[in-house]
């Protein structure tokens, strides 16, 4: 028994002008296919864009920008979206239109800087260590107050944990001590 997936015959609704572009439509050797990934023709431009994609993947375009120039309706936006699709969602893509830059309300440099910041695509990775166990010791380490006088302030907290694997001593920030007191640990 053979099972085949049948494509829907209902008309797909397009949202924007370039939603049909799914990539550059290149062969593995870099040559443009006549009709692929939403592109028809424009073989030299697609092959040149493929070279740019390869340079970006090899990290040879770091710190550089790409400017596509030409008369209206020649496919600059389509090529830019094709490059974006080829690179994937991890590479930031910020499309700009000339009317954004030439605005009477906002300075040109401000618009450009905002788009550059968006294009940097900073990813923040935070590593957290989680310790589970029974609290056997909770002792704040005090030092003389910085402001002088007779008071003392907490420099750090030593927490002893008893786990299945053994015991562990942790030296933690004084703000954690305040949170532990509020939780009545």
UniProtKB/TrEMBL annotation:
GO molecular function, one term: ATP hydrolysis activity
All copies of domain TIP49 P-loop, residue ranges: 14-185
Top-level class of the enzyme under EC nomenclature: hydrolase
Reaction catalysis annotation: ATP + H2O = ADP + phosphate + H(+)
Entry-linked Gene3D superfamilies: P-loop containing nucleotide triphosphate hydrolases
Entry EC number(s): 3.6.4.12
Keywords: ATP-binding, Helicase, Hydrolase, Nucleotide-binding, Nucleus, Transcription, Transcription regulation
Family: Belongs to the RuvB family.
Name by which UniProt lists this protein: RuvB-like helicase
Organism for this UniProt entry: Genlisea aurea
